[in-house]
Amino acid sequence: MTISLYDASIPVFTQMLTALSDVLKKAEAHASAKNIDPNALLQARLFPDMFPLVRQVQIAVDFAKGVSSRLAEIEVPKYEDTETTFAELQALLTKVLGYIGEIKPEQINGQEGIEIVTRPGTPKEKRFTGQAYLLTYGLPQFFFHVTTAYALLRHNGVEVGKRDYMGAF
């Protein structure tokens, strides 16, 4: 049995971004119920040299839309990453879920061998096949930032568990 490039990407991004949206809703409710300034959660970091929650969500979204677009060989939409509130993060997640939801299997399937170049023309330039880009770069990066967002909230007392992290599957 084989798995398609589409099945390994779009449904995974959709599941995890939907779960992240639900976790953020719980975080906002937690802040409200406990009289916590929402910015205490939105700007939370696990260590001073790490990005805060807001940036973790933005980067996860960037990977979902970027990987999906590159595999489909369509232009990656540019977003400003200016979100500062839970509502703005929810709007961003909704926008990206809508965007990747429009990408069809036939746009991605069969793209395993295309060349994808990251950071072209820089010392950090990397070249991947479509399959290697998804499996060894895109998905690990995406999961790192989704997991870090979850960990930030759990560390700060938001009552979430593995089922929240995983979402519906």
Automatic annotation (TrEMBL):
One Pfam family per UniProt: DUF1993
InterPro entries: DinB/YfiT-like, DUF1993
Name of this protein: DUF1993 domain-containing protein
Species, as recorded: Pseudomonas gregormendelii
